[in-house]
Each structure stands twice: as C-alpha cells, then as structure tokens.
Amino acid sequence: MDGAGIAAVLALGAQAAQLGTAFIPCPESGAPEVHKRAILAAREDDTLITERFSGRAARGIANRFLREAEAKHLPRIAFPAQNKLTGALRQASARAGKPDFYALWAGQAAPLARALPAAELIAQLEAETIAAIRSIAALAKE
C-alpha cells in the first residue's frame, strides 16, 4: 500500500508486491463509490476473511451482512452457488450507495489507501519505494 511496505517485502526476498486495494479508490477504478468510500474510511481492524459473499475465502471490510451472517451462524454454501445467491443483494446495495450488503473486498492495509489518480499513485509508490530501499541500504552500511 506504500513504498515502505513494497521495500519491506522486496527486502524479505519477494520479487513483487501485490497492491490491488491501493487502486480501488483511484478515479479510474470501476469500483462503486460505496466501495471506494469504505476503503478510505477503513481502520486497521475493519477487515476479516469471509466466505459469506462468494463461497470462497476472501478478505473484506466487515459490514452489516457479514456481521449478521456470523452472528446468526448462517450456513456456508459452496462457490459458485453462494456467489449467485448474494449477487442481486450485492448489486442492489452498490446501486443504493450503501455498504451494508456489498462485498467490500480489501486487504489488511486498506487504511493506507489514497484517493489519487492511478498514474500519480504509481509515481508516489515508486518514489516512496526508492527512498525506503535507500534507507534500508544506508542502515545496512552502518
């Protein structure tokens, strides 16, 4: 989600970093505004792994649907049946601009998201990553 995170995973041996959530709030993203707003408002403890929307495990921001499904111990239905069952509900929630029943997919670092144009975000991530790598290299020399 930021250059320090990218530099950290590279320093640990990864060849790349996945930053899907970082691009959801970008103006170019096709995500509904309700999803963009939820990511920008997310706190560190707002995400959880769930199978409730699709039948497959994925991380998202907890909302009314997820909280009630867990509290009521609703049965889990396998993919793709669960995905089909919740499809109309998710679409209606997005159209209404309400996060209650929409699958707000997001990674753990969602609170670090920024609403920037994609090109600007990439440039900022690059600059942050280079600065963080230089900082790590300087520490290694000490």
Q: How would you characterize this protein structure?
A:
The protein is mainly α and 142 residues long. The protein has a single domain, classed as TIM Barrel (Alpha-Beta Barrel). 49% of the residues lie in helices and 6% in strands. The protein is built from six helices and two strands. It has helices at 3-11, 20-23, 33-41, 64-71, 81-95, 118-141, and strands at residues 47-50, 58-61. It has a two-stranded antiparallel ribbon. Strand 1 (47-50) and strand 2 form a beta hairpin. Helix 1 packs across helix 6 (118-141). The longest helix has 24 residues, at 118-141. The two termini are 28 Å apart. The model has no long low-confidence stretch (mean pLDDT 95).
Domains (count): 1
Alpha carbon gyration radius: 18 Å
Straight-line distance between termini: 28 Å
CATH superfamily: Aldolase class I
Physical arrangement of strands within the biggest beta sheet: 1-2
Query: If classified by CATH, what would the architecture be?
Result: Alpha-Beta Barrel
Number of helices: 6
Shape: elongated
Low-confidence blocks of residues: none
Helical content stands at 40-55%
List the helices and strands and how they pair.
Blueprint: H1 3-11, H2 20-23, H3 33-41, E1 47-50, E2 58-61, H4 64-71, H5 81-95, H6 118-141
Antiparallel strand pairs: 1-2
